[in-house]
C-alpha cells in the first residue's frame, strides 16, 4: 500500500508550487483499494475496521465482565457504568424495566458497536469512521427494522400490526386515507431510511471536515502559507474534539431511535 | 495523480447505495458482538449485579437486626434504670420514715429526761428554800434577841440615841449580810 493510497492525496504538492492545485477531499476519500481479495470479493479498510470494532468491543467486555466480581475492578466499573448507561438511560427509559429487559443485550451491543465504528475516525493511523460507508449504518438500521416489524406483527397480530403502522383511527373521518398513506410511508420507508442516513451523514460530514483541514494544513505548509497551515491545524484539532462528541451522540441517538421504534411496536395501537 | 484518478474512477454513482459485501461484513461483525454480549458477558454481569444487590440487601437486613437488638438492649436498660430509681426512691422513703420515727422517739425521750431534770431541780430548790427559810428564821431570832439585848443594855435616854443604835445595828446586819455573801461567793 503506497503512501498515496493511504492518504488519498498527493503528498508532494504544496501551496505556491506551480501547476499544483489543492485537492479537496470528496467521495473518493471514502473509497479504498482492496487490502486483499477472496474469491472475487474485495476486502477493504472499512471492513477491516468493522472487524476490529468487533474485536475491541468483545475484548473490552471480555476484560470487564469476563470474570466479573461482586467487588468490581476498575475496568469492570467502567464497563458497568457503560452498561448501566444504555440499560437505564435508554432501554428502561423507553420500554420500562419489565418489557425492556429482553432488549437490553441487543441495545447494549448496538450502542457500543456503533460507537466503536464511529470512534475509528479520530484514532490515529485508522482515521476513518466505518459508519461513513452507508452499508454499515444500513446494516444496523436493517436489523432494527426487522426487529421492529417482527415485534409489531407478533404483538398486535396481522390486522392490529397493519393498523399500528398505518395509524388507523376511525375518528379521523375523511382525512384517514391521507393519514394512512403518510403513516405507512413514514413507518415503512422514511423511518428506517433516516435512521441509517442520519448516522451515515453525520459521520460522513465529520470525516470530510477533518480530512479537509488535515489536507489543507499539509497543503499550505510552504513559505508564508505556514500561518494558514497553523490555523488549519488548530481547526483539525477542534474538529477532532467535536467529532469525539458527535460520535457518542450519534451512537446514542441511533440506539434511542431503535428503542423508540421497539416501544412503538409493543405499544397498543394509538 | 495517477492513483487519484484511479480512485476517482472507482467512486460509486450514489454514496447512499450500499455495497453488498460491506453490508454483509457489517452484519456479521455486529452479530459476533451481539452473540458474545448476549450469551456470555451480559448474563455474567447481570448475575454479579444480582449477587451484589442481594449482598447489599443482606447487609441492610443485618444492620436492621443489629439496630433492633440495640433498641431492645436500650429499652431493657431503661427499664432497669427505672426499676433502680423506684427502688432507690422506696429506700429513701423508708429511711425517711425510720428517721422520723427515731427522731420522734428521741424527742419523747429527751422530753421525759428534761421533765425529770426539771422535777429534780424543783425538788432541790424547794429543799434549799426550806433550809434557807429555816436558817433565816434562826438568824432573825438570834438577831432580834441580840438587838433586844442591846436596846435593853443601852439607856434609852433620848430618841436620838435610840435611832443611832438602831442605825448602827442595821449597819452591822448589812455588813454581816455582805460578808456572808462574799464568803458564799468565795466558797463557791
From TrEMBL, chain A:
Keywords: ATP synthesis, Cell membrane, CF(0), Hydrogen ion transport, Ion transport, Membrane, Transmembrane, Transmembrane helix, Transport. It is a multi-pass membrane protein. Gene3D superfamilies: ATP synthase, F0 complex, subunit A. It is found in: Cell membrane; Membrane. The chain crosses the membrane at residues 47-65, 103-123, 130-151, 171-190, 199-220, 226-246. The keyword Transport applies. Its main location: membrane. The keyword Transmembrane applies. NCBIfam families: ATP_synt_6_or_A. Key component of the proton channel; it plays a direct role in the translocation of protons across the membrane. Belongs to the ATPase A chain family. This is ATP synthase subunit a. It comes from Streptomyces kronopolitis.
From TrEMBL, chain B:
Pfam families: ATP-synt_B. It comes from the Bacteria. It is found in: Cell membrane. Keywords: ATP synthesis, Cell membrane, CF(0), Coiled coil, Hydrogen ion transport, Ion transport, Membrane, Transmembrane, Transmembrane helix, Transport. Its main location: membrane. The chain crosses the membrane at residues 20-38. The keyword 4Fe-4S does not apply. It is a single-pass membrane protein. Residues 46-101 form a coiled coil. F-type ATPases have 2 components, F(1) - the catalytic core - and F(0) - the membrane proton channel. F(1) has five subunits: alpha(3), beta(3), gamma(1), delta(1), epsilon(1). F(0) has three main subunits: a(1), b(2) and c(10-14). The alpha and beta chains form an alternating ring which encloses part of the gamma chain. F(1) is attached to F(0) by a central stalk formed by the gamma and epsilon chains, while a peripheral stalk is formed by the delta and b chains. Belongs to the ATPase B chain family. HAMAP family: ATP_synth_b_bprime. Component of the F(0) channel, it forms part of the peripheral stalk, linking F(1) to F(0). NCBIfam families: ATP_synt_b (TIGR01144), PRK05759.1-3 (NF004412). This is ATP synthase subunit b. It comes from Streptomyces kronopolitis. The lineage of its organism: Bacteria, Bacillati, Actinomycetota, Actinomycetes, Kitasatosporales. The gene is atpF.
Amino acid at each position: 500500500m503506497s503512501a498515496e493510497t493511504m492518504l488519498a492525496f498527493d503528498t508532494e504538492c504544496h501551496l505556491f508550487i506551480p501547476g499544483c492545485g489543492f485537492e479537496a477531499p470528496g467521495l473518493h476519500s471514502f473509497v479504498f483499494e482492496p487490502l486483499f481479495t477472496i474469491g472475487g470479493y474485495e476486502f477493504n479498510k472499512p471492513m477491516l475496521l468493522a472487524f476490529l470494532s468487533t474485536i475491541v468491543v468483545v475484548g473490552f467486555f471480555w476484560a470487564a465482565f469476563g470474570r466479573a466480581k461482586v467487588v468490581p475492578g476498575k475496568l469492570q466499573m467502567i464497563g458497568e457504568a457503560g452498561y448501566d448507561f444504555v440499560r437505564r438511560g435508554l432501554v428502561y427509559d423507553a420500554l420500562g424495566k419489565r418489557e425492556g429487559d429482553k432488549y437490553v443485550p441487543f441495545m447494549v451491543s448496538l450502542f457500543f458497536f456503533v460507537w466503536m465504528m464511529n470512534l475509528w475516525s479520530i484514532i490515529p493511523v485508522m482515521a476513518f469512521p466505518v459508519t461513513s460507508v452507508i452499508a454499515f449504518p444500513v446494516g444496523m438500521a436493517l436489523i432494527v427494522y426487522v426487529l421492529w416489524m417482527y415485534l409489531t406483527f407478533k404483538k398486535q397480530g396481522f390486522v392490529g400490526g397493519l393498523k399500528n403502522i398505518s395509524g388507523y383511527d376511525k375518528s379521523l373521518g375523511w382525512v384517514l386515507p391521507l393519514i394512512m398513506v403518510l403513516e405507512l410511508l413514514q413507518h415503512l420507508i422514511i423511518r428506517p431510511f433516516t435512521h441509517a442516513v442520519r448516522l451515515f451523514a453525520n459521520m460522513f460530514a465529520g470525516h470530510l471536515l477533518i480530512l479537509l483541514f488535515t489536507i489543507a494544513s499539509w497543503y499550505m505548509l510552504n513559505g508564508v502559507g505556514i500561518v494558514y497551515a497553523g490555523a488549519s491545524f488548530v481547526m483539525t484539532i477542534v474538529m477532532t474534539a467535536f467529532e469525539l462528541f458527535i460520535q457518542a451522540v450519534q451512537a446514542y441517538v441511533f440506539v434511542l431511535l431503535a428503542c423508540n421504534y421497539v416501544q412503538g411496536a409493543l405499544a397498543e395501537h394509538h | 495523480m495517477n492513483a487519484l484518478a484511479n480512485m476517482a474512477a472507482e467512486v460509486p454513482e450514489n454514496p447512499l447505495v450500499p455495497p453488498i459485501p460491506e453490508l454483509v461484513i457489517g452484519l456479521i461483525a455486529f452479530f459476533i458482538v451481539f452473540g458474545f454480549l448476549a450469551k456470555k458477558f451480559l448474563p455474567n454481569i447481570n448475575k454479579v449485579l444480582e449477587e451484589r444487590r442481594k449482598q447489599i440487601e443482606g447487609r441492610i437486613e443485618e444492620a436492621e437486626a443489629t439496630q433492633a437488638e440495640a433498641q431492645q438492649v436500650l429499652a431493657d436498660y431503661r427499664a432497669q434504670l427505672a426499676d433502680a430509681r423506684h427502688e432507690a426512691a422506696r429506700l429513701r422513703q423508708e429511711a425517711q420514715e425510720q428517721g422520723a420515727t427515731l427522731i420522734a422517739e428521741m424527742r419523747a425521750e429527751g422530753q421525759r429526761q428534761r421533765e425529770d431534770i426539771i422535777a429534780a431541780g424543783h425538788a432541790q430548790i424547794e429543799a434549799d428554800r426550806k433550809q434557807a427559810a429555816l436558817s433565816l428564821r434562826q438568824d432573825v431570832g438570834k438577831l432580834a434577841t441580840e438587838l433586844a439585848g442591846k436596846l435593853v443594855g443601852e439607856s434609852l435616854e433620848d430618841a436620838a440615841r435610840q435611832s443611832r443604835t438602831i442605825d448602827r445595828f442595821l449597819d452591822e446586819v448589812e455588813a454581816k449580810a455582805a460578808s456572808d455573801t462574799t464568803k458564799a461567793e468565795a466558797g463557791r
